[in-house]
Amino acid sequence: MTAALLTLTLFLASGQYAPQQAGSEPLAPALEARVQTLGKELRCAVCQGLSVSDSPSSMARAQLDKIRELVSEGKSDQEVRDYFVARYGEWVLLQPKAEGVNLLVWLGPVALLLGGAFVIFRQVRREPAAATPAASTPATPPAASTDSEDPYLAAVRRELDQ
Fold it and tell me: What pTM, to 2 d.p., does this model score?
């Protein structure tokens, strides 16, 4: 039983079922340019923030092969994008459409910058507080309250008056 499990493990670990490197041949120069342009617009499914064209992973090579296949079938750029969006979701687009919730992502930074500029403008424009004569002369002790005063508070007030 152990030998069978070990054999199965070695067989699966040998890469027999792993995605293979790009196996398709490049297309005509004009079509290959379209493939590379589309590859720059689509995110690799396993990489963080890399396009299909820039990623060295075998998954990206498989995605690039699929783009090449769809372009050779005569699909338009939008049809290729739609194919990948249907398969992986809108996340696969490196520049998602500015609509719906994505609009917050596009307009959020602009709104924050405008809000910050408004706050800075108000702070700069505000006139400084006028100096009161009481600020330049020592403060007079407040009238003693009729209630019994905390001795610690009285000591602090005496210290401040000096």
Answer: 0.52
Distance, in Å, from the CA atom of 101 to the CA atom of 121, rounded to the nearest integer, reads 30
- How far apart CA 104 and CA 49 sit, in angstroms, is 20
pLDDT value at position 70? 93
Rounded CA separation 54/63 (Å): 12
Q: Which residue has the tokens 């296949």?
A: 69
Sign for the CA dihedral angle at 134, 135, 136, 137 comes to positive
Tokens of 43: 């995110």
Spatial distance between the Cα atoms of 60 and 45, rounded to a whole number of angstroms: 7
Integer Cα distance of 77 and 53 in angstroms: 15
CA distance 153 to 162: 15
Can you tell me the mean pLDDT for 49-60? 88
- CB-CB contact of 64 with 112 (8 Å): no
Backbone Cα Rg of the chain? 35
CA distance 79 to 63: 15
CA pair distance 17, 83, nearest whole angstrom: 24
